[in-house]
Specification:
transmembrane, four-stranded antiparallel β-sheet, Ubiquitin-like (UB roll), three-stranded mixed β-sheet, about 650 residues, transmembrane helix, alpha+beta, elongated
Length: about 650
Amino acid sequence: MRNAGASVDPPTDPSGAASAPPRKHPVRGVSSLPRGVSALPRGVSADIFAEPPAPAAPAAKPSGNGNLPPPAPPVEPWRVPERPAREEPAVVPPPDLELLDPVPQSRTLRRALIGLAALLLVLYLVPAVSMAGKVLPGTTVLGVDIGGQGRTEAVATLRERLYAQARTPMIVRQGARRLTVDPQQAGLMLDAEATVRAAPGGFPSPPEVWSALTGSHEVKPVVSVDRRKLDEAVARVVAAPLERPGREGDVTFDGVTPIPRYPRVGRVIDRRATADQLVRGYLDPEAVIVVPTMRDLPHITRAEVRRALRWARRAVAAPLTLTNGTLAVSLSPATLARHLTFAPEGAVLRPRFDAEAAVAGVEPALVGSARAARDAAFTIKDGRPVLVPGRPGDRVDTDRLAADVLTALDGGGRTVAVSVVNGPPRITDDAAQRMGVREEVGRFTTSYACCPQSAGNIRTAAALLDGRLVEPGETFSFNEVVGPRTAAAGFDGIGPTMIHGRAGTEAAGTAQVATTLMNAVIRAGLRVAEHTPPEVHASHLPIGTEAAVSFPGPDLRWRNDSPYGVLVQASATGTSLTVTLWSTKRYDVDLQGPVVGQQVWLPAVTGHGSGCVATQGQPGFTAAVTRVLRQDGEVVSRQTFRTSYRAQAEVVCR
């Protein structure tokens, strides 16, 4: 039985029924679908949702005999409160997303790019990780492949493979002359560690990986340069044989004779440019260093030299007298000549007079011994130097004296009044203490067995040398300290000499003093500035390091090229002479030799008469002695003393 209520049947008149609003999906909110699109799932027909047909009304029975009961009254249904019918929402399947929201093409392109980037990253990281911490493959140094090696291995490879090339002498050319330079002596060396550090390594970047896989990379070798050694090698190996320095005009003295030295145009090399070319050409087996040269032009003309020569002859023509009240001292022409020099000023030669050195030995006589200032000095006590304090007092004003002497010599005057000043000594106690005179640096002893005359002269010369303090940078002159060999000075047996064509005056035995001093200087590592070997070897003196002296020349001169003072100690006994130098030791000194050549003897000569002097024969030969100076185990200087002795025939008296 159906409940009474509003009919759900469609109205009889379609136009009389209000059209129902379109139904919307409760979730998607879609009110209409595209044409041809069904809201039902696939395979479901809409017929299952059709309304069931209304039941047919019972057919009326035909009236008959009237004996039929009357029809039953209509049944009154149980009233039920009406409730609005609730329609179930229609289930609408989701539309095809591919039709509603198609995928854009940009998303596909982005996915492709991401994939490509990932592939490239893998292609970079795989070789990069294998190359990390090593020299990149394809890296070479002077043709030596060090790619793929660790840094320690690469350094060892370079040292082994480039060992010979790093030590190959370099060729230097100037005109038709060719020289070779040893790179090790020139301070040039392959720095293998720095070269490997300059090579690409670590974790490589993408460009470095690409370069390593597809090509090669040449690394320039790093060269270590010791500038001091390089400059010394250029001066010694290149400049010395190739240069012909220009010479300025000058006037010097040989004894009391002025000697002109005329100017000369020279040729010198550009040392800095040559050194730079050696550095650039190192490790290049085909490099030839072309040495640049330039002219060295003098400033003094020949006419100026002739003018200065005339002035010098007048200056030493007679003695010069220095006066201080009633006191007077005469400077001999030889003393004037020793302390007169010329220096170029532009195109003019100006004379210079060293007044301080000229009056050093006569200053007490000019100002009085009791009033003269005394310089600080040293003496040796108990085997060590002890300071002898100086004292203030009167001194000659040497600056003014130098100008006054030049004025007198220029005007022809021969008397100069000195100016005396009172003040501290020239060498104070503090200055002497700072000179570093503290230890023995050189010693040499020679012996003599005969000739009392020679022994006396040796003691006299040794006394003049003893206690002499040579300041840093000062040049010591044997003839200036010992002075003329005269009887007044305590010498005996004085006679003329001729040494290598130079005439002079000498006392027997003084050459032995000079030789002993020179050998002490050599062992102290000091520089010998001037020495003349004797023509004939003396058997009681060392071969190859002898010094012949005479007054005014030849002379023995050595320079204190150290930053310390040098104290000369000389002592003579009846049979030996010892010279000791005190200072601060700088070098370890090694003497090599003498290397003696073949000896040549002359036949004996027979002499007759009372004037005959028997002479022992001596062979003629050559000798070479080399001094090597080392500092902290490294050779810093090498000097060779070469001597050529002539043979002397034995003289036999009958």
